[in-house]
Amino acid sequence: MSWVFLRDLLSGVNKYSTGIGRIWVAVVFLFRLLLYVAAAENIWKHEHDEFECNIKQPGCENVCFDHFFPVSHIRFWALQLIMVSTPSLLVVFHVAYRENREKHHNQKLYKNPGKIDGGLLCTYLISLILKTGLEIFFLVLFYKLYNGFKIPRLVKCDIKPCPNIVDCYISKPTEKMIFLYFLVATSCLCIVLNLSELSYLMFKYSTKCYLKRHVNKQQ
Questions:
Q1: Residue 217: pLDDT above 80?
Q2: Residue 201: which of 146, 128, 132 has the closest Cα?
Q3: What's the order of all strands across the beta sheet hosting 154-157?
Q4: In angstroms, rounded to a whole number, what is the distance separating the alpha carbons of residues 219 and 165?
Q5: What is the residue-wise DSSP string for 136-151?
Q6: What is the CATH number of the domain that holds 146?
Q7: What distance in Å separates the CA atoms of residue 163 and residue 181, rounded to the nearest whole number?
Q8: Which of 97, 173, 185, 191 has a CA positioned 20 to 30 A from the CA of residue 113?
Q9: Where exactly are the transmembrane stretches of this chain (predicted)?
């Protein structure tokens, strides 16, 4: 899978972000995207082949694997990474719209098309809300799908066509658990960063509007 598009998207967003937003981009790029490409993808690469049950009944291993891993961890995280990064496109598109508008009218309409104010501020806030909502949604979905944030060494399966209760073993559970905790922790960190940036922007522009209104009343 090529991650060039996501890398370029994050680089583009970085130009229009606040200081907290740039930290979010760094966390996503360094601790999630690079970790995923460099390590996590290889650890879960052969998870189906390495899933073993103590019976060779045809079809038993497949149905047990499908039951305990309804969605591959690695594909789940890939989808999560893409989805939580996509709302940032709203900001990039809005800046592009401003630049095209200036080009069309052949005059300077904004002091800086990339400055977070007016309509772009609303777009930026919406993107933060969407990113936070998607992060929380994927964490809850993962918890529901896999019965918590854990990878057991042994799972017991009694689904047909298995003739009785079968013991199935997951390969490299400790290694997978370490990466699972790290990826969940970085996801939680991104939620905290998004909420911090959202609070910062709302406080900053609320204060700015209040002071402006106060000055107008004084005049």
A1: no
A2: 128
A3: 52-53, 166-169, 154-157
A4: 81
A5: HHHHHHHHHHHTSS--
A6: 1.20.1440.80
A7: 35
A8: 191
A9: 21-39, 76-97, 118-143, 178-203
The total number of residues shown for the chain amounts to 219
Contact present, 142 and 149 (Cβ < 8 Å): yes
Give the pLDDT confidence score for residue 70 in this predicted structure: 86
Q: Both tokens of residue 55? A: 């019976």
Residues contacting 18, CB < 8 A, separation 6+: 116, 197, 200, 201
Enclosing domain of residue 100:
3-217
Q: CB-based contacts of 211: which residues, under 8 Å, 6+ apart?
A: none
pLDDT digits (tens, 9 = 90+) for 25-69: 888 877 887 777 777 777 777 787 888 888 878 888 888 888 888
Number of domains in the chain: 1
The token pair at 40 is: 């996590």
